[in-house]
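Class, carefully examine what follows:
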Amino acid sequence: MRNSQRGMKGWMLLGCAAGAMLVLAPIAAAQEPEQITKDNVIAGTMDITFRTRTEIDNSGDFKPGSPKPGVKDEYKLDIMVAETTQFSGTITRQPNVYTKTLARSKQSAAIGFDVSLSVLNPKDLKMKKPVGKWVGTVPIDTASGAYDLSKGKDQQSALRIAIDAIGSAQAFTDPFSGRLMGKAEKKESLAAYTFKRVVGKKTVEMKVTKSDPMRFDNIVLAKGPVEAYPRTTVTGRLDYDYETGNWYTDGVRFRYTLNGKEYEDVVTGSIKWVEDPNRESNGKGFYDFNLRFNEEKNRAATGEGAAFEGMSDEAAFFAVDASIPCLTGKIDYVDTLISGGDAPSASKVTYALNANKLTKAQIVNFFKLWMICIGPTNDE
């Protein structure tokens, strides 16, 4: 949400000097996924048009302020992920519409996906081939805040990744499932929460007085667009701070199996909302990412952190520790603000996120989850 306060190699061969004997290294080591340290591993644009804020119904048949039935917000995206996967298309979001007198439902809230998937040749990034689509519907229960990722099948529109047969690669269709519990409808019940982080030799805290959790209830991210990006289960929370516009998490967990080995990535950290001093006139702001992958395990291994000991607790909490695998960088917004308010009627969004010692599976998993959260992170 944003407002005026607004986050392989194959076998390894070893030479034997005595007899030029070749020794095969263990398979498990050879199959460990490569880590990437590179800028712009999630890069591209998204143009958002909030039509539901400008195309208001004037028939008098619906609750005051309702958009015209059939009007949807549109998110047009063209984003490269992990260098070799392109997501390009449109995601739509429609709200509930109720009749004025009897409050009968005229239109139910839902998110719709129509995103084309293409892959690039790692040896020649100019070679691109369309391979399938990410499509389907996610109904939204606004009373409970639940986004049911499997409920679209009841409308013959299951949320899924559908990949075509190309060359030796077989076709497959894999569904999403689980629930995203969105932010609370009634804000008066928001609770305080304290997030902690160990930096150097001290524990620093960030207290959020109005914490609104977005919860991941066994969300299953469909595999694809290639087999290297496996079916993944996500649990945990990403909490929104209404006073600052920041997002925090003390653990979003991604569980998956890759090359026969089970993995669990625990993502911690923050996504900080930073406004341009002249936002009222230029509409600018950005999310500043500082998400750490498997922080506990990697901190114990490196023992780094002395550089942060002279910082204030707040500065240390948001500081990037390059010794730990992390996703950093920015998502920039240029919003067209509605006259007399702080809500945008449109947003031009630029992604420029950087990887530090992350695998492609980790990067793609995060991006898929961020797209599932497209409503709460952009316009609720």
